[in-house]
Design goal:
The protein is built from 14 helices and two strands, in the order H-H-E-H-H-H-H-E-H-H-H-H-H-H-H-H. By secondary structure, it is mainly alpha-helical. It has a domain of 124 residues. The chain has a two-stranded parallel ribbon.
Amino acid sequence: MDASAVRHDTVGNPVALGVLDWVESQVPPGVRITGQGGEMARGSYHMGQQQHDAPNTELVDRLARWWFVTNDATTADALVPDFAASARDDATAAIRRAFEGYHTDWLTAIDEFFLQERVHRWVGINFTGACLDRMIVGPYLDPRFLALARSVAPTSRSGSGYSARVLERLDPWLANARLATGVRPKHLPRRYVPKQLAEYSIRKYAQRGMEKVYQFARGKAATAVGTPVLADLVIRHWREQPKLVEPVLRSGFVREDWLAGLLSGEYGTDAATVGFLANLAVVERQSVPA
């Protein structure tokens, strides 16, 4: 876990990134072709998102609550209350500042935020470490592709409609193949298909909607495959070797009584919190003079 944290400069979740590192270590070195950045053409706005003339505080804060301060969030129970509150406020303020720089409509602002902020802070973290071992090709980050995507109105791209029309022209057979969601690309979305159902069958849409509502209500996010298992293994190791994680207490961010309960086996925690603790432990150990 420490190796994953150091490899990714302690700025990503070393649990999720550690799983990916392990998987790639089992595959012979070669080219990784990534689809990151494709959201610009697919119009990946969350369900129910509507167009507005410009970003405003209410829209930005709602997006922050729904997505950025929920996904991969450290459990507040682990944190000193003042820090937990200030961290959420600081994150929301940073997101507001970013959107203030987008002098455009709301959906285009979301596109730009995802590309300029999310991609290089999330995808870039992984690519920076992975490119040491293999070549990474990102065709959807090519300026020519981005220029094409930006030339199409967000309302046309929404629900993968623009991408589906392009696919129909390039490969009609593939456009008729069912996706994992149960929808055929050629049906994405038409005038007679509601945007909310664009990327899902009715059953899948209802299921996805309930998952998002449940996630938002609990303040938890779905985790990547393999991360809960690895997080559990890390917790077990910490319980056998508590000195590995105890340096986090020097930061003043983590509650001592909560950490004691975790190490005693009184309760567990999620992968996001394990990743935060692992990063913090590495930072604190590195900050101690040799």
